[in-house]
Amino acid sequence: MSVQEIEEELLKLLEENKEKQVIVEGKKDKKVLCLLGFKKIFTLNKGIYEVTEKLKERQVLILTDFDPEGKRIAGKLNQILQSLDYKIDRETRRKIGFMFTRLKIRKVEELRGVLK
Fold it and tell me: What is the pLDDT of residue 45?
């Protein structure tokens, strides 16, 4: 697959998931997802527990960065949310992570380059 094909596939996957609740790390990540049409975006700028209190639906997509810190946060969020009976969309995160790797992207805010 070419870089362009992977980018198109990634944008299509994000488009298909834009109605889901998403948790991201920061404001820049939120901005990029807003540009993609996501509406239910929660940032972790306050803390994990504050975010969990704001969630309205039982299904969540965790889109923290794919660097070591982001992966650690995603793991922690997974644990906490599952213990609170949330359904985590791990499959979509896994697919996005795979495409990020192929595009040499690690941070959600770097999606800006794909949107050109």
Answer: 82
